[in-house]
């Protein structure tokens, strides 16, 4: 089983969107039984809450239902549990790297999601759409869909190795 963790700040916009998009891609490819997906936030403000309604609406408009997800905060154990720990932006990557160093983990080092797997955009971060309008949530989906396609290719290669 390959395990993927997406991480943003509050776990109510970007990381649940990526979580839902990758789950959908895995189901389309009949790989969902081989890959586990989760999401978390570096901050604990929204623990137990559903994704932001704007994220849910934008995702649902593209056929992705993220309404059943609940926010959680990332933990030191996640570095040992997940094969991929993917931050949505540099600020969250810095927070993950600090947690990784503090806990003395020998597990998976976090990476910047878009920079590692994005193919079609010059952007290296998934911007936080929380304080913006609907267009920001659609842009997040554009970036996440592109990067999830690249991540899925990497997962397939890992499974074949």
From TrEMBL:
Write down what this protein is called: protein-tyrosine-phosphatase
The UniProt entry, under InterPro entries, shows: LMW_PTPase, Ptyr_pPase, Ptyr_pPase_sf, Tyr_phospatase_low_mol_wt
Enzyme Commission number(s) = 3.1.3.48
Keyword ATP-binding applies: no
Q: Where are the transmembrane segments?
A: none
What Gene3D superfamilies has UniProt attached to this entry? 3.40.50.2300
Say which species the protein is native to: Thalassolituus maritimus
To which protein family does this belong?
A: Belongs to the low molecular weight phosphotyrosine protein phosphatase family.
Q: Name one Pfam family in it.
A: LMWPc
Q: Where is the Phosphotyrosine protein phosphatase I domain?
A: 2-154
Keyword annotations from UniProtKB, A to Z? Hydrolase, Protein phosphatase
């Amino acid at each position: 089983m390959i395990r993927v963790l997406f991480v943003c700040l509050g776990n109510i916009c970007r990381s649940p969107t990526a979580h839902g998009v990758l789950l959908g891609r895995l189901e389309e490819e009949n790989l969902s039984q081989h890959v586990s997906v989760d999401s978390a936030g570096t901050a604990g403000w929204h623990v137990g809450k559903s994704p932001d309604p704007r994220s849910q609406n934008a995702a649902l408009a593209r056929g992705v239902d993220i309404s059943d997800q609940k926010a959680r905060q990332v933990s030191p154990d996640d570095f040992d549990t997940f094969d991929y720990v993917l931050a949505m932006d540099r600020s969250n990557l810095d927070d993950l790297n600090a947690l990784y160093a503090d806990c003395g983990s020998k597990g998976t080092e976090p990476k910047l999601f878009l920079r590692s797997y994005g193919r079609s955009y010059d952007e290296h971060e998934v911007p936080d759409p929380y304080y913006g309008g609907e267009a920001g949530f659609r842009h997040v989906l554009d970036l996440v869909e592109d990067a999830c396609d690249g991540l899925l290719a990497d997962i397939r290669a890992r499974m074949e190795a």
